[in-house]
Amino acid sequence: MSKVIKPGSTIGMLGGGQLGRMVAQAGSAMGYRFVALDPTPDSPMGQVADQIVAAYNDREAAKELAGRSAVITYEFENVDAEVAAMLMAESYVPQGSKLLFTTQHRLREKEAIEAAGATVAPYCEVRSSEELLAAVQRFGTPCVLKTATGGYDGKGQWVIRSEEEVEEAYNTLAKAGVQLVVEQFIRFDKEISVIAARSTNGEVKVFPAAENIHVNNILHLSIVPARISDEMSKEAERLAFAIAEKLDVVGLIAVEMFAQSSGELYVNELAPRPHNSGHYTMEACRTSQFEQHVRAVCGLPLGDTTLMSPVVMVNVLGQHVEPLLDRISKPDEAAAALGVAPKLHLYGKKDAVHNRKMGHVNVLADTVDAALGWIDETKLWE
Ligand code: AMP
After folding, report:
1. What is the CATH number of domain 190-378?
2. Separation of CA 268 and ligand 1 centre (Å)
3. Strand, helix or coil at 98?
4. DSSP 3-state assignment of 183?
5. Domain covering 10-93, topology
6. Which of 104, 105, 109, 144 to mutate to test the pocket of ligand 1 (most atoms within 8 A of CB)?
């Protein structure tokens, strides 16, 4: 029998960024209280919840978090293993640390994905530039060299386009103690993702597949329904369900995939937390990914994930904030003409640095084309 953490209880969060903020906003509406542990004073989550200002590996602060919380969760995946172990000893951490251990390392992650019955791009570990050259000859070019740990938003990656690049690619990414993996390049038609939730009592629900468009390796758009066949959406959702079950997930797992027009699906990456490509659920689904996360870790029944409206989520980066605020401060004739409702979310970050994720807009519409039409018309994202 799993533990039920009822509304009114306090949920502790490792990390105080935008993902924690949106979990706190959804959970507060249900009556939960939140406390974040984050080193940045007045963090995005600290603005809407209590905050302990300290480093993530500060043992005293982690103890205080444990003392104040009925349950502890996290909003980023690079949680220090030692801190996780200590929190598990001192408090209730239903997500455990096994899934973090798996997803913090690309080789372990790929093995787990394959064990769950999904396909990944052909890959192998490389320990020298000679091994890399042999792999490049086997996989053909282009192929992708990645660090096994620590990469995000395309960092720690090198697309090798010819054998001449092997030496430089290897020397650039190889550092003491970092393992490297090389993957065959998948010529995909679309990038999609599915977010699944599994609760402490084993119930699993998946959200509708999102079609994701990246610009400079940063998510730009999530389009839902994804412009893929129903068959492929169902298969992607089935794979995410299987991964959540086989990996004993508690909370959310985002499953990123490459979709080929031939019908093939390759799982690229997992993220054991709320995901940028699930922000569309906030207004477009009956239950948001953030509410679902709270339900899952608190042992409540999971919410209905039905899509209520077509939607396009567009990310707001530092350079978009000012023009967007001008735009939303005036009557929007284009929105009225297209019949779309743009919903603004800003994360409360002070410095609107170029390419920093500052917020997003969920554009609700009768069709994804109307939502995309509004985004084009604003000329904010050109
Ligand atoms: P990742 O950090 O693994 O999510 O990769 C970042 C982006 O690089 C992905 O969203 C893809 O657009 C691209 N990419 C990564 N791996 C591959 C691959 N094996 N084949 C084709 N594109 C890839």
Report:
1. 3.30.470.20
2. 7
3. helix
4. strand
5. Rossmann fold (3.40.50)
6. 144
